[in-house]
Automatic annotation (TrEMBL):
CDD domains: TIM (cd00311). This is Triosephosphate isomerase. It comes from Rhizobium dioscoreae. InterPro entries: Aldolase_TIM (IPR013785), TIM_sf (IPR035990), TrioseP_Isoase_bac/euk (IPR022896), Triosephosphate_isomerase (IPR000652), Triosephosphate_isomerase_AS (IPR020861). It holds the Pfam family TIM. One of its GO terms (molecular function) is isomerase activity.
């Protein structure tokens, strides 16, 4: 399966940072895998202009489930599509914890994303306590079941497995733990979507760097990565992209 390398800039970056996205155009490897960068909302339209014609896609980090209305501060999938975004990250653990986003809310947002013909990157992952209690597989299965809407297909949905304890900490699960989880996610996708489930890309996310990416990409059912901190600098992100091809 063609790998997808997605960068999540979180709340980082001003207009001067767009050079880091533009620099990715110089990576000859990018034709062999799909690349998406999700900068903060203020940079989405400008980033789209900078990468035009390159094959690099630009995404957003969240959206509202409704198309329009009295939702101060929110942005709809349709608005994101209008400015050229093609992907939307949904249910990132930072949003699940800081804004109490539930699986149901994530599923409703994913429907809006799919109806707008954008691709959702739906994030799931267990906490440290849940893993220590031996419940990681069960927790992620339940999140998948309730966060993936019936509109999901292999072309409009990507799953990102991101153990909460590995995000921004420098900690990474063992390759065996990643393989076990990704295989469980694949089974759940096949059960839910039938044959389509085989083609849904499952990304690993959590402290991916150029130095550990190749080993992670060698794990069965790892179809790419969702990268936070290491996506902010083109040189480091480029090292991860090279590891995927
Ligand atoms: C993320 O925020 O999705 C993430 C994986 O962050 P980091 O790569 O910095 O751990």
């Amino acid at each position: 399966m063609r790998k997808l390398i997605a960068g999540n800039w979180k709340m980082n970056g001003l207009a001067s940072s767009l050079a880091e996205i533009e620099a990715l155009k110089g990576i000859t490897d990018h034709a062999a895998c799909d690349i998406v960068v999700c900068p903060p909302l203020t940079l989405v339209e400008k980033a789209v202009e900078r990468v035009r014609g390159s094959g690099i896609a630009i995404g957003a980090q969240d959206c509202h489930a409704r198309t329009s209305g009295a939702y101060t501060g929110d942005v709809s999938a349709e608005m994101l599509a209008e400015i050229g975004a093609r992907f939307v990250i949904l249910g990132h653990s930072e949003r699940r914890s800081a804004y109490r986003e539930t699986d149901g809310a994530v599923a409703a947002k994913a429907v809006a994303v799919h109806e707008t013909r954008l691709t959702s990157i739906i994030c799931v992952g267990e906490t440290r306590a849940e893993r220590d209690e031996g419940r990681a597989i069960e927790v992620v299965r339940a999140q998948l079941e309730a966060s993936i809407p019936n509109t999901a297909t292999s072309s409009n949905t990507v799953i990102a497995y991101e153990p909460v304890w590995a995000i921004g900490t420098g900690l990474v699960p063992t390759l065996e733990q990643i393989e076990e989880m990704h295989s469980s996610i694949r089974q759940a996708l096949e059960k839910r979507l039938g044959e389509e489930g085989r083609d849904v890309r499952i990304l690993y996310g959590g402290s991916v760097k150029a130095s550990n990416a190749r080993a992670i990409f060698g794990v069965r059912n790892v179809d790419g990565a969702l990268v936070g901190g290491a996506s902010l600098k083109a040189s480091e992100f480029a090292g991860i992209i090279s590891a995927a091809v």
